[in-house]
User: Fold ABC transporter ATP-binding protein from Dictyobacter halimunensis.
Amino acid sequence: MKLRQQDTTDLIVQARHLYLDYAQSNTDSHHVAVVKDANFAIERGEKFVIIGPSGCGKTTLLKAIGGFLTPLQGDILLDGKPVHKPGPDRAFVFQDFEQLFAWRTVLDNIVYALQVTKRIPKQEAISKARSYLELVQVAHAADKYPYQLSGGMKQRAALARALALEPAILLMDEPFGALDAITRNQLQLELNDIWQRTGVTIVLVTHSIQEAVFLGTHVMVMSSSPAMIREIVDTSHAEEFGSKEFDDISKHLRSQLIHHETRSEEIAQLSAVE
Assistant:
């Protein structure tokens, strides 16, 4: 397994000998191991993508970084301090389209989030909300309700709400997985542009190797559950679809998953062209 040598002063997330598990039911004391002895680090301002077989613990790991799960062993550090609970310094965007409050307009969804988490005056919140809607190109839908939006517009609005909180880390769990191919490709391009303009650290889970290579500056490959880290690959110079480097890295990641006995149906899903 290849791990990066990094200057610890530039790290925003560190996982040290991390073990994660979950109870089989609310009343069951038996726990199932999900992630085993994970050690990795994420640099400030990078796009860190996590791939692996279905059910291997990718989302579980994301929730642990977000502070929603307590490790069985080991710890996660955020800016050098242990993560114990969620906070506005970590914002989530999920695959589910229904992330917005249905009874609030797009603008009000963002204003409400800002007032609750940032405690800023309403007029300031409105101004900030509008600027982030402009950033994700849905300013024209500010006064619409979620049911009036397409799936892609809902994801843009959810992204605007997350970015408006100005988090240290944007945690994204297959945010484009339920979109059609054209909309997904457009949002991938827009996310790269938003990252360039904001410099926010992004941690993203995906099932798509192509999406991982296109979006990621580094891609972490996980094994089947209980998941271990197989490799962390530098993809920062392979953002152009169809380039030799893009294709070579994609093939390498696919070979890593196949080599470690990923089931054939999962490989088909991981290799799908979005």
Q: What stands out?
A: The mean pLDDT is 86.
